[in-house]
Amino acid sequence: MLLFKLFFAFIQVGMFSVGGGYAAIPLIQDQIVNIYGMMTLEEFSDLITVAEMTPGPISINSATFVGMRIAGIPGVLLCSIGCIIPSFFICLILAHFYYKYRTVSGVQVVLGAMRPAVVALIASAGASILLLGLFQAELQEVVLSNIRWVELGIFAAALYILRKYKASAIAIILGSGVVGTAIYAIMGAVI
Amino acid sequence: MKKDYSKLWVLFKSMFVLSACTFGGGFVIVSLMKKKYVEELKWLEEDEMLDVTAITQSAPGPLPVNASVIIGYRIAGVVGSLTAIFGTILPPMVIISVISVFYEQFRTNPYIGTALQVMRAGVAAVIFDVVWNLAHNVWNTKRILYIAMMITAFIATYLLDVSAMIIILTCLGIGIIDLLVKTFGMVRTKDGGIV
């Protein structure tokens, strides 16, 4: 019964979290903390910390964390599957129509207008992450003198390597983690 | 659209690696997917990847999962979708299951904290690299409308905090108007010569 409730709760999370991972957090809180009382608010804030610190989509991360805490491995499976079921069917239908009609010239005109916006959205995500990396702050709270020189150097070096040698993105991300941590460890300034 | 089941293993493997190494929100993984599937494997066209991003952003659910459903479908139909989804959700499921047990040690480990902080610089570099190419291509369309939309959308989302969903829907509206204007223009050309 508990498992069934969990499964159903995460189907709702998957269904109504429109617009990226952070939109899912209040929904999960509502289902798990407020409606079913399956977690305390403190446990829930732990969950957000972990979900942000680990790779992968934030809603899958939280589904797994909640599932594990409440019902072990079966909980993990049910929560994660519940979370993706609505996306799966909706995107499958969208994909079907997209590939059926995308070569129609009228559809191309409409899609063409959406592409510049997507570029802007990706750029905006990049700008936010860059500021977090260089200043550990959002745009409104940036203090120029707080710039972190190690991160700035890594950013510049990584961008240079990517442009010049077409390096793999994964190698760049993991490499910057290893190199940066090593520099801070040598400086004796690990956070 | 041709289904190609021989690509399933590469599809699973690449989704798995991307998902395991992606820190940050949905647009990070979109940048990585663009590099992988457009530039490296050449499975998708660049415009297609942008369309897929717009669709995934407008559908409910986690963006990386949505994108894997569509890309998987493109490569090998429903089987491809399931393969791609499995590759995407497996790493976070395993990682979080382990971490939820060692949560305190993980949260307070200084090396993990530092690595996560410096990795942001690397992630930002990857996104800038991708955006550089994409913006360059929008610029090359030489359409003032598209260039203006790109700049306006950036200001709206980054400085004014307008949600991504609203921006995509607004541009969908502009696209429909654009289509109507073009269609209307063509009709007028036939009988009157006005473009």
Structure characteristics:
heterodimer; A: 191 residues; mainly alpha; 2 domains; 7 helices; globular; B: 195 residues; 8 helices
N-C termini distance of chain B: 35 Å
Output the helix-strand order of chain B: HHHHHHHH
SSE class of chain A:
mainly alpha
Averaging pLDDT over every residue of chain B, what do you get? 87
Range of strand content of chain A: under 5%
**In this structure, how is the largest beta sheet of chain B organized?**
none
Number of helices of chain B: 8
Return residue spans of chain A where pLDDT drops below 50 for at least 5 consecutive residues.
none
DSSP, total strands of chain A: 0
Distance between the termini of chain A: 44 Å
Number of helices of chain A: 7
Number of strands of chain B: 0
Return residue spans of chain B where pLDDT drops below 50 for at least 5 consecutive residues.
none
Question: What is the N-to-C succession of helices and strands of chain A?
Answer: HHHHHHH
